[in-house]
Amino acid sequence: MKIVDYQESPTHKYDSEAAKGVTGRVVIGKEDQADNFCMRVFTVEPGGFTLRHTHDWEHEVFVHSGKGQVYRKGEWRDIQSGTVVFIPGNEEHQIKNRGEEDFVFVCLIPSGAPEI
């Protein structure tokens, strides 16, 4: 069993034209002998956004705090604390912060996918 404050997990920062103001953390992954899933926590600063991309695997998102939007099928949809999003494999997607505070979300991916 592992119990940890997610903010104590190592960080990976994304800050470029493609992804701005994003910090990612692997909170449960292969180092924990998690054989089926990887759990990551992302923090997006106000005005920040993740990379717009696609990949073969699905993932599930739970919005922990803040207000944002998710890009899906050519349009932006509002999401906020408590929202759950399912993104099927091979669907283009992106998440951005539309609020004045940090936007924090949990993202689950299957094992075998790049963890961060």
Brief synopsis:
The protein is mainly beta. The protein contains no helices and nine strands.
Mean pLDDT: 97
Residue fraction in strands: over 45%
The computed structural class is: mainly beta
CATH topology title = Jelly Rolls
Instruction: Compute the number of structural domains.
Output: 1
CATH homologous superfamily classification: Jelly Rolls
C-alpha Rg, in Å?
Answer: 13 Å
For the terminal residues, how far apart are their CA atoms? 22 Å
Low-confidence stretches: none
In the CATH hierarchy, what is the architecture at level 2? Answer: Sandwich
Count every helix, treating DSSP H or I runs of 4 or more residues as helices: 0
